[in-house]
Automatic annotation (TrEMBL):
PANTHER family: TRANSLATION INITIATION FACTOR EIF-2B SUBUNIT GAMMA. One of its GO terms (cellular component) is cytosol. GO terms for biological process: cytoplasmic translational initiation. InterPro entries: eIF2B_gamma, GMPPB_C, Nucleotide-diphossugar_trans, Trimer_LpxA-like_sf. The lineage of its organism: Eukaryota, Sar, Stramenopiles, Ochrophyta, Bacillariophyta. It comes from Corethron hystrix. It is found in: Cytoplasm, Cytosol. Component of the translation initiation factor 2B (eIF2B) complex which is a heterodecamer of two sets of five different subunits: alpha, beta, gamma, delta and epsilon. Subunits alpha, beta and delta comprise a regulatory subcomplex and subunits epsilon and gamma comprise a catalytic subcomplex. Within the complex, the hexameric regulatory complex resides at the center, with the two heterodimeric catalytic subcomplexes bound on opposite sides. This is Translation initiation factor eIF2B subunit gamma. Gene3D superfamilies: Hexapeptide repeat proteins, Spore Coat Polysaccharide Biosynthesis Protein SpsA, Chain A. Keywords: Cytoplasm, Initiation factor, Protein biosynthesis. Residues 464-542 form the Mannose-1-phosphate guanyltransferase C-terminal domain. GO terms for molecular function: guanyl-nucleotide exchange factor activity; translation initiation factor activity.
Length: 559
């Protein structure tokens, strides 16, 4: 299989972790670069990523214990979320990675990240760190514009854009997306090309009778659930007649064309206050649907957009043009726009290269452009333009938990539990509860990177699916299930912990019962505390016999 960065693999000493503002070498002309968006703290993980307690602390030692931690540096098993993402990209064959990191993190965060892991089968990779201030960018689209304008990405390179809170169970999934994008582009040498290939995960679940479960019911059963703002109406069809799933030998996962992408809250909004729902409208749907058998449209809400997009170089250039300068979100604005306009041709996205925008700005998009001979015009009829492009999706089948976002406290807990479980089980064990075990192509994708837990530092209780740091002090008659215990943790006697992440330096009294919760670094719990569905901020002191459920626990609550 060809590496995503096969055109040119940079050497590790070329531009690894160079601070922003210094003299940087030209970016290597790799075919596919990986861009990690890690320039936000993660408000939905409050109070784990909040710094209100730290900024109000007078004592330097207390301020250190109550440090603010961005979401991509939250602990995950024996490392951080970012550690695992970098390792996964290395295994997937990406040789050039750009890390767009929040500026305070690049200077102040107390973390050590492995840039080039010495793991078998991993490829050498160069990580260029570009610190960004939250005051400079309003969203992911703004961050990409700064990256392109700053010359950090070669004009001929395509890019896989990932969010920093992505937890990848199998690197083959990332590689499959790049392979599908590459091979789809080869199918349209004389058309408008493929603008974007996204990764979607089927997260649907059924009850004993086969009826679909609601998100609230999935959460009660301990499964991964989504909030309403994470749910989309997604319309999928077959790819155009010039291609089919069978033409993608390197992408064993299902590959479809995306014709609709609208948020559930937008679709089901009762704008007239009469109890009726608006109809779904898909531009050029009759022209875009394949005429062959099986080319119908399937509209679903059980597909999760995990914010992994493979963008062609011309689509990146269009994002940097004046026409879309008002857009701030890649997931919420730019990608849905590409979905809506694919039937109208490339001209509906890429500005005319002969015209200028505001202030005489060049419309080349930072050196990225599309051959003007391929930019056609529309005659107003609902017919697919000759330069119509494609927005496609690689779909992870139901039952395969290959990747997820740790963007909420429940999702973060679920990801920690899955990573430890994956370390204990074999790929065949993890596939046993699906109907995909007999498909060799799927089995080839499902090869997780080896989690090298240092036996001198950690040990695993396989029966209890629990990871414990050897520096932790566990009291007598303590029950631990699906729990991660960090360094220098003290757990009192007769405690019960179920589905809990205990970060470093936490101190817990006797007879505490903790369930479905995260305890931030340096937190202290008195005797007899009972916490359920809680997130305790770093450094917070919880008084003895405190009982709480569904709370974000901060120091102000006990003042």
């Amino acid at each position: 299989m060809t590496s995503p960065s096969a055109d040119a693999t940079p050497t590790p000493d070329a531009c690894s972790n160079v601070p922003y503002g210094s003299s940087l070498p030209s970016p290597p002309p790799v075919e596919y670069a990986a861009i990690i968006l890690a320039s936000t703290y993660g408000e939905r993980l409050f109070p784990l990523t909040d710094d209100a307690d730290a900024t109000n602390a007078d004592d330097d030692d207390v301020r250190q214990r109550r440090r603010r931690l961005p979401k991509h540096l939250l602990p995950l098993a024996n490392g951080t979320v970012l550690d695992r993402l970098l390792l996964s990209l290395s295994f997937a064959g990406y040789g050039y990675i750009i890390l767009l990191e929040i500026s305070e993190t690049a200077v102040d965060a107390p973390s050590q990240r492995t840039v080039a892991p010495d793991a078998p089968a991993s490829c050498p990779m160069v990580v260029r760190t570009v610190p960004l201030s939250p005051d400079v960018t309003s969203g992911s689209a703004d961050a990409l514009r700064l990256l392109i304008s700053g010359g950090h990405l070669h004009p001929k390179s395509h890019a896989m854009v990932l969010t920093g809170d992505l937890v990848v169970m199998c690197p083959g999934t990332l590689r499959a997306a790049a392979e599908a994008h590459r091979e789809a582009r080869m199918q349209y040498p004389c058309r408008g090309d493929v603008a974007c290939t996204m990764l979607l995960s089927d997260v649907g679940r059924e009850d004993e009778d086969g009826a679909p479960l609601k998100e609230s019911a999935k959460q009660k059963k301990g499964w991964l659930s989504r909030e309403d703002e994470e749910i989309d109406y997604t319309g999928l069809s077959s790819l155009p007649p010039s291609s089919s799933v069978a033409t993608y030998p390197h992408s064993p996962l299902p590959h479809r064309r995306v014709l609709l992408k609208r948020p559930l809250l937008e679709v089901e909004e009762d704008i007239h206050f009469d109890g009726t729902l608006p109809k779904l409208s898909i531009p050029f749907v009759s022209a875009l649907l394949p005429s062959s058998a099986g080319g119908g449209l399937s509209i679903r809400t059980d597909l999760h957009d995990v914010h992994v997009y493979v963008l062609s170089n011309w689509a990146l250039g269009a994002l940097n043009s004046y026409r879309w300068r008002h857009m701030t979100s890649l997931q919420g604005e730019y990608v849905p726009m590409l979905v809506r306009r694919q039937g109208r041709g490339v001209a509906a996205v890429v500005p005319d290269p002969k015209s200028n925008g505001d202030g005489g700005e060049s419309m080349s998009g930072g050196g990225r452009s599309v051959d003007s001979s391929r930019v056609g015009s529309r005659d107003g009829k609902e017919e697919e333009d000759e330069t119509a492009f494609v927005v496609s999706a690689v779909v992870v089948p139901r039952g395969l938990r290959l990747l997820m976002r740790a963007c909420t406290v429940p999702a973060y807990l679920f990801a920690c539990r899955e990573v430890v479980s994956q370390t204990i089980q074999t790929p065949s064990d993890l596939l046993a509860d699906t109907n995909l075990l007999n498909f060799p192509a799927i089995k080839s994708i499902f090869r997780p990177p080896p989690s090298s837990f240092d036996t001198a530092v950690f040990y695993i209780r396989q029966k209890d699916n629990t990871l414990i740091a050897k520096s932790a002090n566990i009291g007598e008659k303590v029950i631990l299930k699906s729990t991660t215990v960090g360094h220098q943790v003290k757990v009192g006697s007769h405690c019960k912990l179920n589905n809990v992440v205990v970060m470093e330096d936490v101190s817990m009294g006797d007879k505490c019962t903790i369930q479905n919760s995260v305890l931030g670094a340096g937190a202290e719990l008195g005797d007899g505390c009972s916490l359920n569905d809680c997130a305790v901020a770093s450094g917070v002191i919880v008084p003895a016999r405190t009982k709480m459920k569904g709370e974000g626990v901060t120091a102000e609550m006990f003042q």
